[in-house]
Structures are given as structure tokens and as C-alpha cells.
Amino acid sequence: MTKQSFLITGASDGIGAVYADRLARRGHDLILVARRADKLAALADQLRSDTGVSVDIIAADLAKPDDLARVEARLRTDETITGLINNAGIAGETSFVEADPAFLGGMIDLNIVAVTRLSAAIAPRLAAKGAGAIVNITSVTALMPDSFTAVYPASKAYVLAFTEALQVELGAKGVRIQAVVPGITRTPIWDEAQLANIPAEMVMDVNDMVDAALAGFDQGETVTIPALPDMADYDVYIAARSALRPNLSLARPAPRYL
């Protein structure tokens, strides 16, 4: 990559913080967004000291409309920002019948609404320039919603479909679009008690996950699944999905419904 400036959400720890480290070491300037101003400031100081890049911070809760609007305005007006890493998100819901509707609403606001609006804030600039990047962190649960809770995988399926659609529109204009689809990754979104009950071979180190995601970006992938040994398997899935297309919208119901 040539030198760019990336805005990273959920940047105070976990995946976002590792992205910040890796991009800074590549020489890119950063704008880090998260709720905890103290953690952002400490990370920014460390990155400036280690790499010499410019690091700005925005303390914001992207599930809150006013905070989201502040970050949108920065993306819309700051011509120096050439890349967006949509990483902020939450999980942790209970079963659907026991779920707190307010928590589910907050999850949708952060995992779906914020991703959409931040992308919409920067996309016109990037498309006009014919350059830049939008990277959306989704989840393998988007591909297997029957194996998890209800709302989190649905929110991540939205992000994956959204990214595929962005690729069609913005990729043709020169903007790099990538969906990163990690499996279980050792980050603060999981507590150690949860991870202790998961086979170790299913849990990826966060550094390995982000390094794989960046390798996928460098290789020009639109969808990067860090744990998948052979992307041909995913291509088969996409081909099977595409094969349905000619028969998904027809003038008459299928014979079995007549």
C-alpha cells in the first residue's frame, strides 16, 4: 500500500488495536475511534512513539446517534482519510426468548447501522477519487446462523451481503472493498471462561487473524476467511448460490405450490 490515512472503529483493543498497530507499522496515519478515551490515548501515544505516524483519537459510542454523527462528519469532510476499517461491534446476546430488546437494539445500531452510515459517509469521496478502501469485519456466523444466537449472526450476515454489494458498485470505481470473516478470535469480546470451553484448535490468536486479513487485502480478496484452508470451498458455495438466481423470481409459483 502507498501511504494512506485509516479511520478504525473499535480501536481501543482486540482486532481494532492490532489493525492500528499493523497499519501504523506500514507507515499509515490513523484516526482511532472507540468509547474509552483513556485507552485510545494510551494506544495512540504508543503508536506515535513506535512508528512516528500521526495518530488522532475520537472518543465515541457509535451506537449513540450524536456520537455516530460526529464520526460521519469527520469521514465526510476530512479529505486526508482514504480508508475505513469498520471493526466496532458487540456480541453476547442470550437466547432470543430471554433477550433484552434494548440490548438487541444496541447491537443492531452498532453492528449494522453504524457500519452502513460510516461507509455511506466516506464512499462518495472515495468513489470520486477512484481510490481508497473500506474494510468490514463480519463473522463466520454469517455463514452458519443455525449454530449461534439469533441477532448477532443476522447482523453479520448483513455486513457480508452489504460488503458484496459495495464491491459491485464501488469496486468498479477503483475503491478496494473487503469483508473479513473471522471465526472465534481471542479478543475481549470473549471472556476466558467462555474460551476455556471451546477446543483450542478453534480459537485464533488476534494477531494471526489480523495478519491474515491484511494478507488477503494485499492479495486483492473481496472476502477473506482467515481460517479457511482452501478458498475454492467458498467459491463452490458462491457458485451454488448463484445457480439459484435464474429461478428466484418467476411469473408463476413453482409446481409444488399449485
What does this structure look like?
This protein is an alpha/beta fold and 258 residues long. It has one domain (5-257): 3-Layer(aba) Sandwich (Rossmann fold). It is 47% helix and 14% strand. It is built from 8 helices and 9 strands. It has helices spanning 14-25, 37-51, 65-77, 101-129, 151-170, 192-196, 206-218, 231-244; strands spanning 5-9, 29-34, 55-59, 83-86, 133-137, 176-180, 185-186, 204-205, 223-224. The protein is globular and about 70 Å long. The model has no long low-confidence stretch (mean pLDDT 94).
Q: Can you tag this structure with a few keywords?
A:
NAD(P)-bd_dom_sf, 7-stranded parallel sheet, 258 residues, EC 1.1.1.381, KR_dom, 8 helices, oxidoreductase, Rossmann fold
- The overall average pLDDT, rounded, is 94
Helix content: 40-55%
DSSP strand content: 5-15%
Q: What is the CATH homologous superfamily assignment?
A: NAD(P)-binding Rossmann-like Domain
Report the C-alpha radius of gyration, rounded.
Answer: 19 Å
Topology as a string of helices (H) and strands (E): EHEHEHEHEHEEHEHEH
Low-confidence stretches: none
* Helix count from the secondary structure assignment: 8
Oligomer: single chain
- The CATH topology corresponds to Rossmann fold
Strand order in space, largest sheet: 3-2-1-4-5-6-9
CATH class: Alpha Beta
Work out the count of structural domains.
1
The biggest beta sheet is recorded as: 7 strands, parallel
Shape: globular
What is the β-strand count? 9
Instruction: Please tell me the CATH architecture by its name.
Output: 3-Layer(aba) Sandwich
Structural class: alpha/beta
Q: Roughly how many Å apart are the termini?
A: 57 Å
